[in-house]
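User: My instructor asked us to take a sequence, write out its structure as tokens, and then describe one feature of it. I'm not sure where to start. Here is the sequence I was given:
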Amino acid sequence: MSVPSEFTTADRDLALPSLSMRDRVPLFHAIRHGIGPPMPDVTTATFDGVRGVIVAGYPLARRILVSTVGVKSRPVRSQRQLGGVGALRDDQVRAAKADLLIALGREAADIDSVRRHLELGFARTGTTENALGALTEALSGALLAQLLGTRADLDPSFALREAVFATWRHVESAVAEQDSPPGEPNVLDDHLSRTVAAHSSRFVETLRLRGWADERIIAEIRGMLLAGWGSTSASVLSTLALGAAESAAQPAVQDEVLRLYPPSFMIARRVVEPIPGIPIDIGDIVLISPWLIHRNPAGWSAPDRFLPARRCRDGSGPEWFLPFGIGARRCPAARFARTQAAQACALLKSTPTPDDTVVRLIENRSPALVGQSWDTAR
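Assistant: Let's start with the prediction itself. The structure tokens for your sequence are:
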């Protein structure tokens, strides 16, 4: 594969695991430890035998993400199982994003509601006891409750974590072009359908007024829940571990936490059309890594240091910043996630900053700096 002179390339190929959820932890560690400074723009790789490249340079990443060169790497059948805006194409994406930005923006602006649902969720799951799994469940449960118009401490018969994992098994079976596991009903969809039918909320009504059918709203909430499972937890844990809980609501602090520990270490695309000057072929996998881009010395001075003031003085930094992606598929829940993370840190600010920390992949998805006091078994 030839690489134009404007891009740098590694002098070796990497043999990596697949992009499936079951392989995310070894994939993350292989990328984290296998590509270091000086970081090439392009590293050729195979993902469980599938040819592709890893992109660690922002200019090339942007050219790919804002163009039509790639589609989501997840197979269509699997993407439909996942649901939501990610399953849409072209102009449908932009229209849906516009509606979601309005609906989610109203929820993010209601700080009292965000905090109230978090308090109820924390009380139900025991998050203040430093149980790592409970934090994800509390944050996701609070999101669901606010969007659906319920209370985060009600319906103890609904096991959110088990429902999410069962749904992921359905999604992953679609990746492998297999039938869903036998005897495993879609508990999450059943719960969402019953709740939307029995309750009303500002979020649901906003989308209904914009022409969304209830089935589409349910699919969007499911997709949002699955896509964000663990990502806000990672931001909260990293903020606590960095000793920044008191200033978690400051945009510069949030940006720097998200730079060091982005919600996802990878954005995967499958190439469907060539673009002159980009070193990829049709059918290749392009793995754009915010983890690498955010730590690339070409875009950041002292990239491994936590420096919230850097965006005030580092002119190149903001251009190399994509924690929620860029282009038409940028995450529409970014503002809500920031708000929820800040409020969660405020509620947990009494948690001592641990002396010992470790980098973990939360829920097999999101990198985080985690204090050793957090119990990974709960």
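For the description part of your assignment, you could build on this observation: The first helix runs from residue 24 to 34. Try explaining in your own words what that tells you about the chain.
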